[in-house]
Known about the structure:
Elements: E1 5-8, H1 14-23, E2 27-31, H2 35-44, E3 49-51, H3 54-59, E4 65-68, H4 75-84, E5 88-92, H5 99-112, E6 116-119, H6 126-136, E7 143-153, H7 162-178, E8 184-190, E9 200-206, E10 212-218, E11 220-232, E12 236-240, E13 247-250, E14 253-257, E15 260-264, E16 269-270, H8 278-292, H9 300-318, E17 324-325
Parallel strand pairs: 1-2, 1-4, 2-3, 4-5, 5-6, 7-10
Antiparallel strand pairs: 7-11, 8-9, 8-17, 9-10, 11-12, 12-13, 13-16, 14-15
Helix pairs in contact: 1-8, 4-5, 5-9, 6-7, 7-9
Amino acid sequence: MKKNIAVVGAGYWGKNLVRNFYELEVLHTICDADKDLVNKYESQFSGVKFTDSYSHLLDDSSLKAVVIATPAAYHYQMAKEALLSKKHVFVEKPLALKVEQGEELVNLAAEQGLILMVGHILRYHPAIKKLKELVSTGELGKIQYIYSNRLNIGKIRSEENILWSFAPHDISVILFLLNEFPETIYATGGSYLQKQIPDVTLTTMGFKSGVKAHIFVSWLHPFKEQKLVVVGDRKMVVFDDVSTEKLLLYPHKIKWIERIPVACKAEAETVPIKKEEPLKAECKHFLECIENNQIPETDGNEGLRVLQILQISQESMSNDGLKLSIEEKQ
């Protein structure tokens, strides 16, 4: 495969994308305004070009695609410029900060016949793929509710709140598992470190099937915890991204004794999964989509659905947890 990929923003998260595309032997250019970063990378990534000019990068006809890992506030404008320059785009989550902007990017990519992919990394995690299989085959029975938490002390941002920073991952996975869009949403949050920038939020999504999903995110938490719990009427499963045992299946049963439900606990079973770095799988998928002109699993439309939920959650939070209805954009 040719070296025709550029990564824009090589800092906090971008450095991981730089490493993966370099290891996949397709990295052509790194674009970043931080000169110290460039000096550091020059010895690490031999044969790769460096620039601090995004416009010069877009003018380079040898580049086929742009990978955007800049702060969220720049995603829309940079993705738009790249699409207008006839480049395929991989943009980190969120797709944009407004639904209208997300729609514009999706339409623009379609008009230009270009790939638009959003970085929802958990969709490429082997444990999530296995979890989807357990849900789809009926192993868990009828899904009753889903609970996720993504908690940590740290990296506290000033350009976006915790909802926009952490929750896109869980929203994307929940939509994937249920293959359903929520009907109602309400969210609450607390701003403790910076005024009007929530550090902790709790979002509840209600689905037509009767499933309720809760997403609890915080960057003001004493330790790192990333869990997704899926409860079915036959079995329950826990995805724990921090643990070495990523996926645990609990075949608990509820027995009715004299018309009273009694929990009968069972030992957890470790579900075997493929060993693969999710980010590597995500990067490979982007390259395959370009090569074969196929729609990414996390394409612009998927990014737009997540963006809709974020925007409605934000609106609910701004109105003291008001329950709001939502309709999927077609």
